[in-house]
Prior knowledge:
mainly alpha
Amino acid sequence: xxxxxxxxxxxxxxxxxxQGVIQGVRYDLLNTLLVNELxxxxxxxxxxxxxxxxxxxxxxxxxxxxxxxxxxxxxxxELEAAVGAQQQRPAVPARYKPGKDL
Length: 102
């Protein structure tokens, strides 16, 4: 590792001289710090996976609801067309009996 680069991220593991000039890296401390960071990343990854699963379930539910809405909308259009067709028919007198002349 390049000590100057490590110093920007983990200044506690860098060895400096009396003037503050970077001399090297304390590799004995790196393992512990890296394991801790790895564990932290694993926890964050697990939390993000759970969040992704929850969001995927919400998307699936929204898709199902969208399909239901589209089906209901199509049915409503059919019913409105049927009602409109019935309203456009001429009214039949109440005394009219099919098969008899007026």
